[in-house]
Amino acid sequence: MLEHSMLYPRMTAARRAVSLDGMWKFRLDEKSEGEAAGWVDGLPGMERIPVPASFQDFYTSKDVREYAGDLWYERELFIPGEWEGKKVFVRFGSATHRAQVYVNGVKVAEHEGGFLPFCADVTDVVRYNAVNRLVVKVNNELNVANIPCGTTVTLSNGKKMTKPYFDFFNYSGLHRSVHLVALPMESVFDLDLTYEIEGTNAWVSYRVATTGEHAVQLSLLDEEGRQAAYAEGKEGVLEVKDARLWQVRDAYLYRLVIQIVDEDEVLDEYVQEIGIRTVEVKGKDILINGKPVYLKGFGKHEDSDVVGRGFNIGVMKRDFELMKWIGANSFRTSHYPYSEEVYQMADREGFLIIDEVPAVGLFESMMNFMEASTGKTTAFFEKETTPALLAAHLMALEEMIVRDKNHPSVIMWSLLNEPETTSDAAVPYFKEVFDRARILDPQKRPRTFALVMNSLPGTCKCYPFSDVIALNRYYGWYVKGGYEIDDAMEAFRREMEAWKALELNRPFIFTEYGADTLVSEHKLPSVMWSQEYQEEYLCLTHAVFDSYDFIRGELIWNFADFQTTEGIMRVNGNKKGVFTRQRQPKSVAYLLRRRWKELPVDYKG
Ligand code: GCB
């Protein structure tokens, strides 16, 4: 059970939530002197940067962009006098990858893991009706005892550098909104929901956790604000007659108003938007509300110019408009849980989300996608640090599922991306992670993980854990690209035949396939990296998808070009985007649009 509530901060009659976004004082700590120099009481200098944002791309110095170590933030915190007697928290949407929080020089929280929210309880530390000082020390180093995995090295000039075992830039800092929150002493802490639908009626079973013992009342309001159901008690069922279901790309959201009451007095009120829908895997079908759905969409990143991985509300809006334009219905939050606002938008727009925990880089290589295609194996799960890694992984999993379980858009959990799966040591690790996901999710959503190229029917020891088999495959790119592409497709079909022969009677989806493409390159006949090649590659790959009835989804890699570590494999980033980093289409976007607009939602169902 988590120490603090994961509920998204909202204003209601009983609650207060104030955004702390804006310009914060900022300081890199190259000499690791912050603590000794008393920075917990306030930072030296006058430098300021925006929150939320990654710090890396604002500056013109390479030493700043590549900086590894501690980074400090500070801002003033005015606490209203009328909040005395309430519980007061500072809530961080995330701090990448770990943070320690100080208020008025007193340590009030620490958190490990860069992509999930955490709270600092500051009730007894703050001065009311006065200005307080909030200082945050963030650290962005990588190791193999936490996720995502990588290493941190020291160069001969003494500077530290991170080496990710994953293919995205190690953006860091305060990437998401920070809120100052005031809650009543007795408050709603958590909410579980499960759905049953029969004919035109629905039953919403709920369980509300509160911090006290007073009575709980719930009313469910439809989009017009009319009451659709009412219930009392911390556990129960809301019966909804003529329920409007939440459907794929046709969302309907009810508002669930939860109140803690003491006779006539409302002690707390929390409002949660919910969508009535069921999710199930049955045989080869992925069923939403009992009807098969074929996934069309993307692996994405939170990544854009200037703010890096910082939440950017304008980019989010543009991304959803592009996904609607192209006929997509789903995306994977590769390779970490995204900002909460993204799920709220997906709920509203009827998109399906495969929600991924930041377990990426569990494969010893800086280019695992390359090494894995050579058949190389490494025993990643036999390290001394594996128990610590597992603990961090399970913690992030719990935080993710508790945070995201009430979004109708979330239909599946992705528990790892491209881990090493060929050694026996992987198996008990996987078992723990998969079992925990099942326990944590009241809706028992399907669980999956993305299989790297060398995780094959004959080599992978872990695919049996997956409710949906998710493949990342690059036949025609990392394997036999260019003029050899026909051989690549033959190898691809051979692999699919081997999966078919296993008769797993489970859905398969592609969580990655794609080819790097420079928006500047056109070539007739095509060569790798040209826009023409990306189109040819897709046509051939889609023909393979279309030949197997158990393939139930295609999430292309990637929605947009994105920043990575520099190196010979990457041209200022990964260029497998269907859109550029500035969110303009490559030629292939029109090809995908034609295909996806034509494929029925229940394709192959
Ligand atoms: C993968 C990884 C992804 C990379 C991609 C690529 O298998 O999961 O993070 O960006 O391949 O483009 O190589």
Structure description:
- The chain is an alpha/beta fold.
- It has two domains: 16-183, Jelly Rolls (Sandwich); 280-598, TIM Barrel (Alpha-Beta Barrel), CATH 3.20.20.80.
- 19% of the residues lie in helices and 31% in strands.
- The chain contains nine helices and 30 strands.
- α7 (485-501) packs parallel to α8.
- The model has no long low-confidence stretch (mean pLDDT 96).
- Bound molecules: (2S,3S,4S,5R)-3,4,5-trihydroxy-6-oxo-oxane-2-carboxylic acid (GCB).
- (2S,3S,4S,5R)-3,4,5-trihydroxy-6-oxo-oxane-2-carboxylic acid binds at residues 166-167, 335, 369, 417-418, 472, 512, 557, 574, 576.
Helix and strand layout, with pairings?
Layout: E1 16-19, E2 22-28, E3 48-51, H1 62-65, E4 70-79, E5 87-92, E6 98-103, E7 106-112, E8 118-121, E9 130-139, E10 150-154, E11 160-164, E12 178-183, E13 188-198, E14 201-210, E15 215-221, E16 227-232, E17 235-240, E18 254-262, E19 265-274, E20 279-282, E21 285-288, E22 291-292, E23 295-299, H2 313-326, E24 330-332, H3 340-349, E25 352-356, H4 368-373, H5 386-404, E26 410-417, H6 426-440, E27 447-451, E28 469-472, H7 485-501, E29 508-512, H8 531-546, E30 551-557, H9 588-598
Parallel strand pairs: 23-24, 23-30, 24-25, 25-26, 26-27, 27-28, 28-29, 29-30
Antiparallel strand pairs: 1-12, 2-3, 2-4, 4-9, 5-8, 5-12, 6-7, 6-9, 10-11, 13-14, 14-17, 15-16, 15-18, 18-19, 20-21, 21-22
Helix pairs in contact: 2-3, 5-6, 7-8
The protein binds (2S,3S,4S,5R)-3,4,5-trihydroxy-6-oxo-oxane-2-carboxylic acid (GCB).
